[in-house]
Amino acid sequence: MSSVVAERPGQVRKVRRRLTGLWFTVPFLLVFVFVFIAPLAYTIWLSLFQTKLIGGTSFVGADNFVAVFQDPKFWEGLGRVSLFLLVQVPVMLAMALVAALVIDSARLHGIRFFRIAMFLPYAVPSVAAVLMWGFMYGERFGLVGNLNGWLGTDFSVLSQQWLLVGIGNIVTWSFMGYNMLILYSSLKAISPELYEAAALDGAGQLRIVRNIKLPAVQGSIVVAVIFSIIGSFQLFNEPNIMQKLVPNLISTYYTPNMYAYNLSFTGQQVNYAAALAIIMGVVTAVIAYVVQLRGNREALK
Amino acid sequence: MASSTRRVLTVTASAVALGLVLAACSGGSSDSGSGDGTAGGSDGGSSDALDAALEQGGTIEYWTWTPQAEEQAAAFMKAYPNVTVNVTNTGGAADHNLKLQNALTAGSGIPDVAQLEYQSVSQFQLPGSLTDLTEYGFADLEDLYTPSTWGAVTQNGGIWGLPQDSGPMALFYNEEVFTSLGIEVPTTWDEYITAGEAIKAANPDTCIVNDSGDAGFTTSMIWQAGGRPFAVDGENVTINLQDEGSKLWADTWNKIVQGGLNCEIPGWTDEWFAALSDGTIATLPTGAWMPGVFENSAPDGAGKWRVAPMPTYDGTPANAENGGSTEVVPKGAPNPELGAAFLRWLNSDPESISVFLNSGGGFPATVAELQSDEFLGFTSDYFGGQEINKVLVEGIDNVGTGWQYLPWQSYANSIVSETLGQSYLNRTDLNEGLVAWQDANVKYGEEQGFTVSTE
């Protein structure tokens, strides 16, 4: 991209030299075009058509996009992941921040153990994680079943009211340590001189947290929030695997990604799924961008 | 999404290139064989081409989730050393269909022989994805199979596969539960509901049946009740999930669901197998292929289970098929003649069928095996020494005729949970759930260009 600098008058003879530079970027550009541009272009191309079992393929322009916006299933899925985002992400990041501060405080024994133990779930493949939690949520043989047995209660995670919370718990378990590590690494980057100065000024630990550590991790929090927004909108593995356990609670359009997947692979509606994927991509990008702009402004204050 | 569409693109591109190469290869090598075949068999069909292909040999790809497939392929390669069969285990019907559909869409990596559930034949046949085996003389094989399974592989004037197994329904029941409660094994659905109430009353954690809205089970039960909700005639599809039989089933099953007599344990989970072993689930109305599954996956239930004919609505025996598969030769397969030759051996040669029956407990579709004394006289230790095949084979004669599946049955099945399943979830009228399922299918059928009516 850097090779496409705007031309100014009087620099025409530099064009040839610039073309030489272009040749050096060809390997990169080839990969870039194949890996990023081509799939996007192909998805956009697909979204402009409609393929029917009877009647074949025809050009429909923006019809697919109009249909997605009028599709209550799409809105239901989007609403669900938005709710998920608003509740799960703050909880997860707050926990990650507290964990990072605690580990950074150097007041605990066995810090390495806790650091690794908290990060370990991130290394568990999400399929395995969901199966494990799904088993624990089971009311007949699982942990929840045992707890109900001891307490004489009738609580069920795999029910309409609690299922999304149960999924949020799995995601939090998987990604809390990852986010903690992002925040912890930026805490580690704080210059020791700042702590020294703070100590000389007689600042207590809470004061140090509020005036030194929190401002220092603000940039990392923005990054973590953006990752989490993308992750929430792409929610797929957890509900898709749990569907086998609770088929009646998880529809084929439970999340937008599941909807796109089922549309294209079970329903053979690849074109409609492509339109949906593009819309979700744009929605995610816009929200992530807004968060980044706001986050950066906050950080500059 | 983006990455998968890209894969389709590159796969398609390489498929075009590959297709050219393959076309060139097959054009050269099988000239003599296909020449004979088509000359002799444009109408009546001839098997000469297949014999020639077997003699010439080659390699074929076989996609299946049949547990006995590896062993069958080994026996085949022993009989025909020139031929190599590569078996790919696709895991299960849902993943299998997805994989096959993707290969067909991409036009590359298409297997020479693939397994299909009977209910999926229409879905692949209608868009022209299957090879009509009439040209290879498969019409001569009709008498080998039961009428209902032969009917399942023939439609729209073609023969699209050979039946591998069949699934006439029967009532599997846990005898321990019935004797300990002193209740009779039900012969009608009314008695079944009464028994269900007794079981629930004795122990609220147990139930007469586990069902929370399963597509295959629902369609089979409607079939047994005399319903024929789907009718396909080319591009014209009729969907009426409120015909007499559908209503009869829903009204009956309402008493089970609304009465809370069923367990909501999803099938094919560890929980389910455990519940089959320990007496939590008292009965299982399902296909005749179930004994093998019992033995393999619920070993602790050994000795407890028995088989009885399906309960009836009015005393007149009635039955339906549940599950069962065929093998097919997909269109675009690199080696269709050798594939068809393997398929012919696989599902008609006594040696292959013997492997199928003995090393996995399959239930055959071939008349000879179904009527053999050895098969009928088989006593199962798992079923307490009962001659289970006698009961299961008897069920075949009562299977109602004229059943059809939708040309998009996989999709239809995938949305059962969010339509019919909601009636189970909220314990409301199953008829409403059936109507919701019907509406979603009508919408989908119309979107796909079919002319759909509900009458």
UniProtKB/TrEMBL annotation, chain A:
It is found in: Cell membrane. One of its GO terms (biological process) is transmembrane transport. The chain crosses the membrane at residues 21-45, 81-104, 116-136, 162-184, 216-236, 272-291. Signal peptide: none annotated. It is a multi-pass membrane protein. SUPFAM superfamilies: MetI-like. The keyword Oxidoreductase does not apply. Keywords: Cell membrane, Membrane, Transmembrane, Transmembrane helix, Transport. GO terms for cellular component: plasma membrane. PROSITE patterns: ABC_TM1 (PS50928). Its main location: membrane. The keyword 4Fe-4S does not apply. Residues 78-291 form the ABC transmembrane type-1 domain. Belongs to the binding-protein-dependent transport system permease family. This is Sugar ABC transporter permease. It comes from Miniimonas arenae.
Automatic annotation (TrEMBL), chain B:
Coiled coil: none annotated. Residues 27-50 are annotated as: Disordered. InterPro entries: Bact_solute-bd_prot1, SBP. SUPFAM superfamilies: Periplasmic binding protein-like II. CDD domains: PBP2_TMBP_like. Keywords: Signal. Residues 1-23 form the signal peptide. Residues 34-44 have a biased composition (Gly residues). Pfam families: SBP_bac_1. This is Sugar ABC transporter substrate-binding protein. It comes from Miniimonas arenae. The lineage of its organism: Bacteria, Bacillati, Actinomycetota, Actinomycetes, Micrococcales.
